[in-house]
Specification:
This protein is α+β, with helices and mostly antiparallel strands. The protein has 5 helices and 4 strands, in the order βββαβαααα. It has helices at residues 34-39, 52-59, 72-87, 90-105, 113-122; strands at residues 10-13, 16-22, 27-30, 47-49. The protein has a 4-stranded mixed β-sheet with strand order 3-2-1-4. It starts with 9 loop residues before the first strand and ends with a helix.
Length: 124
């Protein structure tokens, strides 16, 4: 059995065992894929995960060693995790406060935290 390696690992997502997500490929592959079959030939089994978004969050910290996901659902979780990590830094919090002061001075509504996170996610 292999040691966990996020750069070359497979997941069953949401109980679907007809295909697996390959971190090396950055997308789903069929369960009959030759690389997957060879990978599990020593008895190693894919990890089961409940949602694509949660898989994206698992993969996010390993960028750039793990390719950006091609699947829309996995990519959404990946981008959300990256945006959340960026938004937690103090400099971003300071910029958020300053941006909202500018918004008010310009007669505009300040951004909510959710709107700012959505913006950051959009640029990821």
């Amino acid at each position: 059995m292999k040691s966990y390696d996020p750069k070359n690992w497979y997941w069953y997502v949401g109980g679907d065992q007809a295909r697996v997500y390959s971190s090396a490929a950055g997308d789903y592959v069929p369960a009959a894929d030759a690389a997957f079959t060879a990978w599990r030939s020593d008895g190693t089994q894919p990890t089961s995960i409940d949602t694509e978004a949660n898989l994206g969050a698992v993969l996010s910290p390993y960028y750039p060693d793990v390719p950006r996901p091609a699947s829309v659902g996995v990519l959404a979780g990946y981008q959300q995790d990256q945006a959340d990590n960026v938004f937690q830094h103090k400099l971003v919090k300071l910029l958020f406060v300053l941006l909202n002061r500018i918004q008010v001075l310009e007669g505009k509504q300040p951004l909510t935290v959710a709107q700012a996170r959505a913006y950051v996610r959009g640029v990821m």
